[in-house]
Specification:
Structural class: alpha/beta
Number of strands: 11
Largest sheet: 6 strands, mixed
Shape: globular
CATH class of the largest domain: Alpha Beta
Strand content: 5-15%
Radius of gyration: 22 Å
Order of helices and strands: HEHEEHEHEHHEEHEEHEHHEHH
CATH topology of the largest domain: Rossmann fold
């Protein structure tokens, strides 16, 4: 009987802790630009007390307290803000995550989604953390409907071969298992790079594979200058056909469910301009 009473007391003592963990966060720190943008999509921007210097979207995020960048964060600044939760990314230093947890601060590591469905799952998780589950589901359902409708328009169309550049000196591209690849495939295209993730590439490889379309996402380099550099290779189909385009780095590499739909429309327009959207 004594053991049963002890068990009941332990369960009773643990309940407030479980409920506290499930209670919607009111003071949030975001360590990722796309996380910050999604918090505003969920009408939770007022709960954001701090974010990184890379968090610039929407404009209101630029006025929030800055606690470092996506890789190096100021632990003292975070502690001073007294957050209910810190939303970390795969780029957050694991040692910083460990130190925050030792200080008793709740840290949720947001998974790195690699396609639209993964993106929706992450968005739903943010909805649960902020107490905006219903709003998250509505946004996701609407985005899914739009993506499905756009994919149907691509049915039966010939695949357009695409190369994506996200770095210069050295040349860096994005292969499979990425947002960029999912966008290209959904838009009726085919990524000429079959290896997964980010990887170095050479101009010789691009010339040999001769893509129909090229996208340049200027992540820390001059996209317009790089586009001009490609113009010397007149034999490339993308160059001769005037099919070298510059895309916003945030939209291509770290979209929200809403921006994924808009970027998909843009990519479809570039790959299949004859399609009426």
């Amino acid at each position: 009987m004594k053991k049963i009473l002890i068990a009941i007391v332990l369960v009773w003592m643990m309940c407030p802790i479980v409920l506290a963990a499930e209670k919607p966060a009111e003071r949030i720190i975001s360590l990722g630009p796309v996380i910050t943008e999604e918090l505003y999509l969920l009408s939770s921007g007022d709960k954001l007390v701090g974010c990184t210097t890379w968090c610039k979207r929407p404009e209101a995020a630029a006025h929030k307290v800055k606690i470092g960048n996506v890789q190096e964060i100021n632990l003292e600044a975070i502690v001073a803000l007294k957050p209910d939760v810190v939303l970390a990314t795969v780029l957050t230093d694991p040692r910083s995550v460990m130190k925050l947890r030792r200080l008793g601060i709740r840290v949720v590591e947001i998974p790195n989604a690699k396609d639209f469905e993964g993106l929706c799952q992450v968005f739903q998780l943010l909805g649960e953390i902020t107490g905006r589950e219903s709003e998250a589901r509505q946004i996701i359902d609407r985005a899914r409907e739009q993506v499905l409708a756009l994919k149907k328009k691509m049915a039966g169309l010939a695949r357009v071969r695409v190369f994506v550049q996200v770095g210069a000196n050295p040349l860096v591209t994005i292969g499979r298992e990425s947002f960029a690849n999912d966008l290209i495939a959904s838009a009726g295209g085919e990524n000429i790079v079959t290896a997964p993730g980010y990887l170095q590439y050479s101009r010789e490889q691009v010339l040999a594979q001769d893509p129909d379309v090229m996208f340049i996402s200027s992540m820390g380099f001059d996209g317009a200058k790089e586009k001009n550099n490609w113009q010397q290779f007149k034999s490339l189909r993308a160059v001769s056909g005037d099919k070298v385009f510059i895309l916003d780095e945030y939209l291509l590499c770290s979209p929200t469910p809403v921006s994924f739909v808009e970027t998909l429309k843009t990519v479809i327009h570039y790959l299949h301009p004859q399609v009426i959207l």
